[in-house]
Specification:
Layout: H1 22-38, H2 43-58, H3 63-87, E1 92-98, E2 101-106, H4 107-133, H5 136-145, H6 150-179
Antiparallel strand pairs: 1-2
Helix pairs in contact: 1-4, 2-4, 3-4
Length: 186
């Protein structure tokens, strides 16, 4: 069974981080993740996010794949930012009536939204960089070394294995549908 290039395993070999032990990468990532989540400002999470994305660029990860991995967290962060800006806070920047609904933009809500958004982006970029830098088997071995409960690791292994089973089935279904001109038009 051929492995899809959208999974991290394809990129986790042949770069400068592949020689570092997975336990070290995991511990550094966990420490940085704790710092990002506990930091009260926006500067440190953004620096960590930029650093992790530069690591991904150094590992030659395609920009399209990075964007695909960041798309959902970016959407969630945008929604959180918008909700915080429009519905929380005391210091009103503007106010408008839209079809009988009063919307107000709050300066302190905007700052809180930016703070949460920076934490989301910092944490997600760290996890993405770890995923690209570490093969799954080494990652699971590092989790085992950290004394993560064995049932959790077994469930991860089953899920990982069945991802490829489902991917192969989806590819077969897609090919069969395409051969029957199933995707020929609207």
């Amino acid at each position: 069974m051929a492995q899809c290039e959208c999974f991290s395993e394809h990129f986790s070999k042949g770069h400068f981080l592949s020689g570092i032990d997975a336990r070290v990468k995991l511990l550094v990532t966990l420490a940085l993740l704790l710092m990002v989540l506990s930091y009260q400002g926006i500067l440190f999470p953004l620096i960590v996010s930029c650093g992790a994305l530069m690591l991904c660029a150094k590992m030659r990860i395609p920009v399209k794949l990075l964007f695909l991995r960041m798309a959902q967290p970016l959407l969630i962060a945008s929604v959180v930012l918008l909700l915080k800006f429009l519905f929380t806070g005391e210091d009103v920047m503007f106010s408008l009536n839209l079809l009988g609904l009063k919307l107000s933009g709050h300066r302190d809500g905007l700052m809180e939204g930016i703070r949460i958004t920076s934490r989301i982006m910092g944490g997600v970029s760290l996890v993405i960089a770890l995923g690209f830098a570490t093969p799954f088997i080494e990652f699971v071995a590092a989790l085992s070394w950290l004394r993560v409960p064995r049932p959790f690791i077994e469930i991860m292994m089953f899920a990982y294995r069945y991802l490829f089973v489902f991917l192969e089935d989806a590819s077969t279904i897609y090919s069969a549908q395409k051969n029957r001109l199933g995707y020929a038009g609207i």
